[in-house]
Structures are given as structure tokens and as C-alpha cells.
Automatic annotation (TrEMBL):
Protein's gene: LOC112049553
One of the GO biological process terms: synaptic vesicle exocytosis
Biased composition (Basic and acidic residues): 16-68
Organism: Bicyclus anynana (Squinting bush brown butterfly)
Protein name stated in the entry: Complexin isoform X2
Family: Belongs to the complexin/synaphin family.
Family matches, as SUPFAM superfamilies: SNARE fusion complex (SSF58038)
Role: Positively regulates a late step in synaptic vesicle exocytosis.
Annotated region described as Disordered, given as residue ranges: 1-103
């Protein structure tokens, strides 16, 4: 019976890891290329639509709205890569949405009073 290498392996781990890393790089590159092709396809379709819209505008003498440029500026390059919000940030946003105008006003007044109080206390020193 020969059990050499039956349990521990033959040392091919580095080769396997290199192959896996190469396969992952190729997969990521394929995904990126597919995304670029999709974006190019949609850009061309949008150009064709805009050409048709412009022909209709010219025909009926309708002025063009400049909303398209504003929407493109607000959209990030890759929405999947945007910064994720922490649970604290999400909780803070939810708390702000829950507050009504009176509560917001009350909180701003309280913070301003506390700031003034701390400024006055820092200037007045008890001996």
C-alpha cells in the first residue's frame, strides 16, 4: 500500500491558486467588456431616439428641455461601486425623516443654546 501524497496533496496548491486567480481575472475582464458593450449599445440607441425627438421638435417648433444633461451628471459611473451607508447613517436618516418641523426647530434651538452656554462658560473662569 502506497499512501504517499494521499492526504496532504502533491504541492499543486500554488498552481491551483494561480489558475484560479487567472480565471477570476479573465472573468472580471469579460464582465467589464460586456458592460462596456451594453453601455455602447444603449448610447447608440439613445442617440437614435434623440435624433428622432429632434426631428419632431423641429417639425413642430418645440424648444428642447435641458433635463438630460442634469440627469447624467447626477448618475455615478458605476452604481454598484458607490459608497455603502453604515447602519448609523441609515438610522440618522430615518430619525431625520421621522421628525416633524416642531421637533426640528426645538432641536436646533437647544443646540444653539448649548453652544452659547459653552462659549460663555469658557470665557468666564471661577476663582
Amino acid at each position: 500500500m502506497n499512501f504517499i501524497g494521499a492526504v496532504g496533496g502533491d504541492g499543486d496548491d500554488s498552481d491551483d491558486k494561480e489558475k484560479e486567480e487567472e480565471a477570476e481575472r479573465e472573468r472580471q475582464e469579460a464582465i467589464r467588456e460586456a458592460e462596456e458593450r451594453r453601455k455602447e449599445k444603449h448610447r447608440k440607441m439613445e442617440e437614435e431616439r434623440e435624433k428622432m425627438r429632434q426631428e419632431i421638435r423641429d417639425k413642430y417648433k418645440i424648444p428642447k428641455k435641458e433635463e438630460i444633461a442634469e440627469q447624467q451628471q447626477q448618475e455615478p459611473d458605476n452604481p454598484l461601486m458607490r459608497k455603502k451607508k453604515t447602519p448609523e447613517e441609515l438610522a440618522a436618516e430615518a430619525e431625520l425623516e421621522d421628525q416633524d418641523e416642531f421637533t426640528k426647530l426645538k432641536n436646533t434651538i437647544e443646540t444653539q443654546v448649548n453652544e452659547l452656554k459653552s462659549q460663555i462658560e469658557s470665557k468666564c473662569v471661577m476663582q
